[in-house]
Amino acid sequence: MIYSSGNVPALASNPPDYINDRTFGGFKVNVYDQSIELLDVPFSNGYSASVLPVDDIVLFGMSSATGVGFYGFDPAGGTTSMDPIVNTQGDPSVILEFE
Fold first, then answer.
1. Is it true that the peptide bond before 15 is cis, omega within 30 degrees of 0?
2. Residue 84, pLDDT score
């Protein structure tokens, strides 16, 4: 399974407002079934749509209407935090894990 963020251009304003438009969502991609599922992750602007699977949770770095920071998605239960589990001061554009 691949977890990704993706742009939904139909959600953009005209003309686009790249800071305030929330056009990037979280997706689960199954390459074997060739299917893509929209996850219940708050939509974000394009500057902060980052993804990192860590252990049994998938972190999404989002700048959404409910907050700016890291949201958690639980693949086993299919649930998402509707508020950031970690707040950030700026848009979380990249998430990296160091061991």
1. yes
2. 96
